[in-house]
User: Which sequence fits this backbone?
């Protein structure tokens, strides 16, 4: 039924008659102009974009308006984090943005609620052709393209101050922690946030493998080695407690501000490309970015394993101006806009041409994100119940009174899995 409703929405979009000015002006990729799709006259749109890239999005929306000089289009760009976008759209779709940026694991929720409009069929082939196969797959459900790929690097990696943490130090968590201690500086990660704390069991061999169950909403896991996962959790817990003077768990926004303080309080941290421009601006020639380090587990150096996903642009199914919203999403997700955001905000493109540009391939933050993506698990087909239990697991590893003997950690892991699966 969900699939039928989505297809009906797509058909209705195509059948609706609109008046406006499409003209012969080229779009960001030339796709929209070639389709004959026209924006409605007098369209008033709202766009949600993350605060760190707000100015870039505003300028790009102004450029889109300039392509339709006689249409009277108005666009309001509002700061809204991608992580909360789906929740806010679901809470009040009528008041939500016409075009919004969100993380790919939220696609199921948006589709199930019928609040995301499928990519217009006039545009879908071009969107598919210009983006990576993986990003298109993340934007697709039941063979229907539901959103526009926006980035190909929605993951996290290591930032560090090269004047304190050497490139060699940055290879291991132990080396990073020791360098931070010597300088009396903090290592920061949001270890109580499931997006980041899933690194702890993932590094031990736990993996998510899609959804299962009668309603397709129960998280499936691999056939993991419980002893190996528990041993890895114990290694993290021991290290956090041994270096409790420098290990600091808090929101990742504290990382760029920690580097910027005078004197600085942060020497290294785990964060994503969304803060790259701010951190690079502060550290200058001492800016360091690399894949996540290793951790020693019973004598073996294990590579930290993370989540890696994609950011997408969605069109609100309640938009009063669906053609204008579709064309704007198409424009903002196009090659030129993705490349500009890579240059100004260090966002890794999903667009294959933009991703091959020298400005992208030589960007240290984007390179670090792509290097870590090799050691990651795809952030797709995830249960909404995944995040809180994983965050609780993280909190139970580093808090001061935490117990981390084998029996306690085994029980913690079993409880985490059960809570994720809502058993």
Assistant:
């Amino acid at each position: 039924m969900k699939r039928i409703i989505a297809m009906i929405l797509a058909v209705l979009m195509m059948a609706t008659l609109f008046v406006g000015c499409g003209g012969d002006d080229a779009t960001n990729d030339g796709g929209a102009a070639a389709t004959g799709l026209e924006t409605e006259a007098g369209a008033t749109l709202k766009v949600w974009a993350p605060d760190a890239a707000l100015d870039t999005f505003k300028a790009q929306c102004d450029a889109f308006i300039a392509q339709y000089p006689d249409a009277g289009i108005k666009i309001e760009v509002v700061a809204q984090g991608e992580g909360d976008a789906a929740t806010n759209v679901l809470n009040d779709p009528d008041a939500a943005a016409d075009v919004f940026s969100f993380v790919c694991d939220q696609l199921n929720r948006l589709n199930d609620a019928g609040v995301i409009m499928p990519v217009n069929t006039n545009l879908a082939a071009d969107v598919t052709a210009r983006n990576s196969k993986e990003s298109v797959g993340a934007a697709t459900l039941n063979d229907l393209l539901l959103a526009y790929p926006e980035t190909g690097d929605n993951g996290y990696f290591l930032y560090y101050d090269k004047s304190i943490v050497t490139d060699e130090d940055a290879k291991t968590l132990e080396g990073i922690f020791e360098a931070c201690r010597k300088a009396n500086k903090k290592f920061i990660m949001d270890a109580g946030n499931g997006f980041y704390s899933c690194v702890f069991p993932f590094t031990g061999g736990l993996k998510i493998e899609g959804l299962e169950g009668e309603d397709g909403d129960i998280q499936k896991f691999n056939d993991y080695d419980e002893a190996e996962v528990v041993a890895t959790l114990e290694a993290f817990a021991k290290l956090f407690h041994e270096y409790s003077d420098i290990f600091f768990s808090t929101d990742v926004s504290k990382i760029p501000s920690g580097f910027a303080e005078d004197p600085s309080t942060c020497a290294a941290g785990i964060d994503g490309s969304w803060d790259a421009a701010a951190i690079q601006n502060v550290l200058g020639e001492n800016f360091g970015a690399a894949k996540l380090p290793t951790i020693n587990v019973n004598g073996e150096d294990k590579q930290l394993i993370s989540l890696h996903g994609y950011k997408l642009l969605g069109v609100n199914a309640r938009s009063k101006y669906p053609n204008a919203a579709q064309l704007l999403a198409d424009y903002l997700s196009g090659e030129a806009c993705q490349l500009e955001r890579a240059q100004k905000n260090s966002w890794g493109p999903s667009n294959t041409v933009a991703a091959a540009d020298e400005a992208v391939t030589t960007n240290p933050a984007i390179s670090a994100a792509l290097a870590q993506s090799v050691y990651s698990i795809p952030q797709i087909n995830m249960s909404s119940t995944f995040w809180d239990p994983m965050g609780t697991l993280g909190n139970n590893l580093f808090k001061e009174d935490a117990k981390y003997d084998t029996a306690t950690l085994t029980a913690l892991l079993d409880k985490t899995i059960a809570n994720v699966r809502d058993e």
Remarks:
- Residues 25 and 67 are 6 Å apart (CA to CA).
- The radius of gyration is 22 Å.
- Residues 1-33 have pLDDT under 50 and may be disordered.
- The chain has two domains: 2-153+309-367, 156-308+385-420.
